[in-house]
Write a structure and sequence with these properties.
Helix content: 40-55%
CATH architecture of the largest domain: 3-Layer(aba) Sandwich
CATH topology of the largest domain: Rossmann fold
GO molecular function: glycosyltransferase activity
CATH class of the largest domain: Alpha Beta
Shape: elongated
Strand content: 5-15%
Oligomer: single chain
Number of domains: 5
Strand order of the largest sheet: 3-4-2-1-7-8-9-10
Pfam families: Glyco_transf_4, Glycos_transf_1
Structural class: alpha/beta
Number of helices: 27
InterPro entries: Glyco_trans_1, Glyco_trans_4-like_N, Glycosyltransferase_grp1, WH-like_DNA-bd_sf
């Protein structure tokens, strides 16, 4: 297989990424692969050194002398094309790496990406003043960039399970393979070191045979939390303890000053940056290794220390779960005090056999295993790429893009909904290629996406609470409770749903329509709103509007009252207002304030007429009794009713006579017609 590794840092740079690439290149070549490294240099022209292609770049002197290149490298395409690559492996995130991604798209080459750095732990470079708002935005941006890069190829390699879990949290859906970086463990075989060279190094550092050496190897930067180890050594009662710091970085001067200010004296020894071939000799001088960093994706120096037979003192972190067994291959700590105590105990005890236990822990981190695992990832990436779909058509539909996909193995095109955010993250365009596993992943969510679209349409025509929408998605769209909840939560996050706004708007509307606070509370609770939210909204309602609502309701009631006395109308209004949830005080005040411009005599007559129609079929005595009771129920007095009853009965008799006369005339006319016939 012909492999192109694209990286923004390579030899002669010294760092963990470079070490990983050098180890991988050698391991892959041992397996028979041809490996090209595309990197950069501080020059203005392209430089080819055998299988190393260096692109033009500028040196960043303030950043350890690293080089930065433009992602636009048109003249380099010829060199890449001649390499006839089978797979591209991107190792970084900057200019060269971006160019590698573009090459993969333009030349239709499978892409693998290794996520070496937990970028969320490096926000202090963007936010030196530690501003909360900037910190939040920086972390969100780094998560988004990580997600975009992770979803840009056929496979992602994570050096540890911790790294994989972080990528999954970011939203990476590309297959993630956990492949710990391997080492040439033979370099850290202490029996192979030159004793004279080791002795001279110890003398040059001012170390004595009786010294207890705690070693730190790494970049001197804030995320490494070196100050915790420094404090632990300074506050130790062991007069022989020494901290040997190997490495350089942006905070090197800061740590020198810290050691001086805290009176470290000769307890802290800064060796500075050393050549790669010299590093094993520093491990050979130490009794143990210590680091307080929790920003590692794997922690290569931990493995190097163990390979050298040194127990590791480390902060509790998932990266160490497979490396440190408490009391056997190392020790955990949470703060400087705990580290001080454990170092004291360590140097007071005998550790026979511990070195061999440490070395045994590293047996799965060989260069050979590393190369074999990465080679398997390449093979899977190539196979996945062969089953990709071509994007033939695209159409935006609300929050989604509707894709028409085609591949040679299928006769019919495939229709696929994909969220708009994912569409842009994956940089999909016409004629772009989607891996089969990507398509398969989205096919599982098509019912979910269609339910989402239906919910959006539903909300455009009707206000709903979160509870109502969730219930509708389960009953009408067939989603299970978990998926319905996921839609609702996402709608809330996008401000498509707002229970607070719903409650406030509905409360104002219902109050305007004459509903009481009690009725509004009941309706809001019925709509599935939380009791605490409902009470909050009710408490914010203007108390003066309660009277206005009651008055509006009362005026509506009066429209249906025509046969009652004015006194009874007020009583009836008060009672009905109380039934609707208005307080007795508001109800009574509303009833008293009603302006009833009516003639009680006319109302009484209306009541008598109604009663007469209702009871016309009864005998006269029974009819009088029923009419009297009816009118009394409408709020009139017995005297008022008795006074008008004679007139009512007289009118009823006239109506009866007129009706009978009309029937007789009708019969005479019918008889006359019959005789004529």
């Amino acid at each position: 297989m012909r492999i192109g590794i694209f990286t923004d840092t390579y030899l002669p740079d010294i760092n963990g990424v470079v070490s990983s690439i050098v180890t991988l290149k050698g391991a892959l070549e041992d397996l028979g692969h041809q490996v090209f490294v595309i990197t950069n240099h501080s020059g203005s022209t392209i430089c080819r050194e055998g299988d190393i292609l260096r692109l033009p770049g500028i040196e960043l002197k303030r950043l350890y002398g690293y080089k930065m290149s433009s992602p636009f490298q048109l003249t380099a395409d010829r060199y890449i094309r001649d390499m006839n690559l089978d797979v591209i492996h991107v190792q970084t995130e900057y200019g060269v790496a971006i160019y590698g991604r573009q090459v993969a798209r333009d030349f239709h080459i499978p892409l693998v990406y290794t996520y070496h750095t937990m970028w969320e732990n490096y926000t202090h470079y963007f936010n030196p003043m530690e501003l909360t708002g900037v910190e939040k935005l920086s972390r969100a941006a780094l998560r988004s960039i990580s997600r975009t890069y992770g979803n840009g190829g056929q496979a992602v390699i994570a050096p540890s399970q911790k790294t994989k879990e972080a990528l999954l949290r970011y939203g990476v859906i590309t297959p993630i393979y956990v492949v710990p970086t391997g080492l040439d463990l033979s370099r850290f075989d202490m029996t192979k070191l030159d004793p004279d060279r080791r002795q001279k190094l110890a003398e040059s550092l001012g170390l004595k045979p009786e010294d207890h050496i705690v070693l730190f190897v790494g970049r001197l930067a804030k995320e490494k939390m070196l100050e915790m180890v420094i404090d632990a050594v300074i506050q130790s009662d062991d007069e022989h303890i020494r901290l040997l710091v190997v490495g350089s970085g942006p905070d090197e001067a800061h740590y020198h000053e810290m050691a001086r200010e805290r009176g470290a004296g000769d307890r802290i020894i800064f060796a500075g940056r050393v050549e790669s071939e010299d590093v094993p000799y520093y491990y050979g001088l130490a009794d143990c290794f210590a680091s307080a960093s929790t920003s590692e994706t794997q922690g290569m120096t931990y493995i190097e220390a163990l390979a050298a037979g040194l127990p590791v003192f480390g902060r509790r972190d998932p990266v160490l779960e497979d490396l440190v067994t408490e009391g056997i291959t190392g020790y955990y700590f949470d703060d400087a005090r705990e580290l001080t105590d454990k170092l004291g105990t360590f140097f007071d005890e005998d550790h026979e056999g511990q070195a061999q236990a440490c070395i045994a822990k590293t047996r799965t981190y060989t260069r050979e295993i590393f190369g074999s695992k990465v080679s398997s990832v390449y093979e899977q990436a190539v196979a996945d790429y062969a089953a990709t779909y071509d994007v033939k058509k695209m159409r935006a539909v609300g929050d989604f893009m509707y894709l028409t996909l085609q591949r040679d193995a299928d006769q019919e095109p495939l229709k696929l909904l994909i969220p708009m955010d994912d569409f842009f993250d994956l940089k999909i365009g016409l004629q772009a290629r989607l891996d089969a596993w990507v398509v398969t992943n989205y096919l599982q969510f098509q019912n979910y996406y269609r339910a989402w679209m239906a919910a959006r349409k539903k909300l455009s025509s009707r206000d709903m609470t979160a509870w109502q929408l969730k219930d509708w998605l389960v009953r009408r769209r067939g989603l299970d409770t978990a998926k319905a909840s996921a839609v609702v939560e996402e709608f809330i996050a996008r401000n498509y749903l707002d229970d607070q706004e719903y409650a406030q708007n509905k409360a104002a509307y219902w109050q305007g329509m004459g509903s009481s606070r009690k009725t509004i509370r009941r309706k809001l609770l019925r709509d599935g709103l939380e009791a605490e939210l409902v009470e909050s909204v009710i408490s914010q309602m203007d108390p003066d509007l309660e009277y206005d609502s009651a008055r509006k309701a009362a005026l509506g009631m009066l429209k249906t009252m025509k046969a009652q006395s004015a006194r009874y109308k007020r009583q009836l209004v008060v009672r009905r207002l109380e039934n609707r949830g208005f307080s007795p005080e508001i109800a009574r005040q509303t009833g008293e304030d009603l302006e009833l411009e009516q003639d009680d005599g006319e109302a009484l007559q209306h009541a008598l007429d109604n009663a007469a129609r209702l009871y016309i079929s009864l005998e006269e005595d029974k009819r009088k009794e029923k009419i009297l009771q009816y009118c009394l129920r409408q709020g009139f007095t017995a005297d008022e009713v008795q006074e008008r009853l004679p007139d009512v009965f007289a009118r009823m008799e006239r109506q009866t006579l007129a009706a009978e006369t009309g029937v007789c005339h009708a019969e005479e006319d019918a008889s006359a017609d019959s005789q004529e016939d």
